[in-house]
Design goal:
2 domains; disordered N terminus; six-stranded mixed beta sheet; six-stranded antiparallel beta sheet; 2-enoyl-CoA Hydratase, Chain A, domain 1; 19 strands
């Protein structure tokens, strides 16, 4: 990529941001590459009763299903009128209202949970630097961040986290385990892991970790193959990091884009990356808002258009923005999708700041792939199905990546 192309790409990024900021304002989705999400925190102090009343109104006005899951929504206002005394009362009331929508993506966030969103947007965490997943009720380490306390302590992929500071982690949700592991900078955390049937105790000193959301390399055995992993679309620097990854792999003849375990994130990041593969004027994704309004997001004309063969790796952890990118590339035959069926999250959430530093994550729309396919609860089926087992992970045998390399070599010839 020459200087002229790089300049054009910077202008293109700016245009995409402006375009999608306009779109997000229409739907009031809080997404901005440049502004830290912390600035949206509402620190106004209100009573617990007022918090419930305000939240009831926000849900009523913004939830994508105007029938409110076929219920008389005003009943909740009547039910809680004058009954909320404490913050815990408010939390239970709001959670109950949201549960009545039968929507797993709409939830209440406490002050602490809402603040966690700021960390995600800024791509920084205070912890030990591991990627974890829950498999059959056990918490496995699936990745270790370079230069992190976890790497220094020699934690490994395949280790099972049994306890954190003496608390049993078996059966715990990922969020609970992550919260237990994280903590103030320079504080210590004790972790008990299981490795090869041996229990090992590790004491680690937490530190602030800057997380890169995009990683890239050129295959050491085949210089024709480039590899780009996008771990999340939530980071404010994801678009920039992807451009840098393209520059590093520019001399390869084919690309593997790894979206496995990527839970999604900011819509403009998915749109921006998709736009590099799809010709201007073609639809990338369409958003169906409240009462059926449909907004089509189309690719913009740019001199940057990637035409080399591409294989996209996906699995059951690839969701939301990951499915927007993989769905668009599949619909236009711009890539072969390899792995296992994706998660199936075809809904769009709005993070709504509420008084007292709290907030709600509220579903305000759904999206369709360019061919008009609704993937919610269905996922995207890969063109080539390849399973990855726990034994593969423990032995560091990535059969999906190997299959992707073989497929890409066929596409290059």
């Amino acid at each position: 990529m020459g200087k002229k192309q790089a300049f054009i790409l910077i202008i293109f990024v700016f245009m995409i941001v402006l375009l999608n900021n306009f779109f997000m304002k229409f739907f009031d989705i809080p997404v901005d590459f440049r502004t830290k999400f912390a600035s949206r925190t509402n620190n106004t102090i209100v009573s617990s009763q007022q918090l419930v009343n305000l939240t009831w109104r926000e849900i009523k006005d913004a939830y994508y299903d105007s029938s409110m899951n076929n219920q008389r929504w005003v009943r909740w206002k009547e039910h809680y009128r004058g009954k909320i005394r404490t913050d815990e009362d408010a939390k239970v009331a709001i959670a109950t209202m949201l549960e009545s929508l039968n929507d797993p993506y709409s939830n209440f966030m406490s002050k602490e949970e809402f603040a966690e969103q700021n960390i995600d947007i800024d791509s920084k965490v205070t912890g030990i630097g591991v990627n974890i997943a829950s498999i059959d009720g056990k918490i496995y380490i699936l990745g270790v961040v370079d230069g992190s306390p976890a790497q220094t302590a020699q934690l490994k992929i395949g280790d099972i986290i049994l306890k954190v500071n003496g608390v049993d982690m078996s059966g715990k949700a990922i969020s609970e385990v992550a919260s237990a592991v994280r903590g103030p900078v320079n504080s210590f955390v004790e972790i008990v892991i299981l490795r090869d049937n041996n229990k090992i105790i590790k004491k680690l000193k937490r530190k602030e970790i800057k997380v890169k959301t995009v990683k890239s390399l050129i295959d050491k055995d085949d210089k024709d193959l480039g590899y780009i992993q996008i771990t999340t679309f939530i980071g404010s620097s994801t678009a920039k990091e992807f451009v840098e990854a393209l520059e590093k792999t520019k001399n390869t003849k084919g690309l593997i884009i790894d979206l496995r375990g990527n839970p999604g994130g900011l819509l403009p990041n998915a749109v921006f990356i998709s736009n590099m593969f799809i010709e201007g004027g073609n639809e990338i994704v369409s958003i169906i808002g409240r009462n059926g309004y449909r907004n089509r997001i189309k690719a913009q004309n740019t001199q940057i258009n990637i035409k080399k063969p591409v294989v996209v790796l996906v699995d059951g952890g690839s969701a939301s923005a990951s499915e927007i990118l993989s769905g668009a590339l599949k619909d236009y035959n711009k890539a072969k999708i390899l792995g296992t069926r994706t998660y199936g999250k075809g809904m769009v959430q709005q993070i709504v700041p509420l008084p007292n530093g709290t907030g709600i994550n509220l579903t305000i729309a759904k999206y369709l792939t360019p061919k008009g396919i609704d993937i919610n609860k269905k996922g995207i089926e890969p063109d080539i199905k390849v399973e990855l087992t726990i034994d593969d992970m423990k032995s560091n045998n990535d059969r999906q990546l190997l299959a992707a390399k073989n497929e890409l070599r066929k596409m290059i010839k």
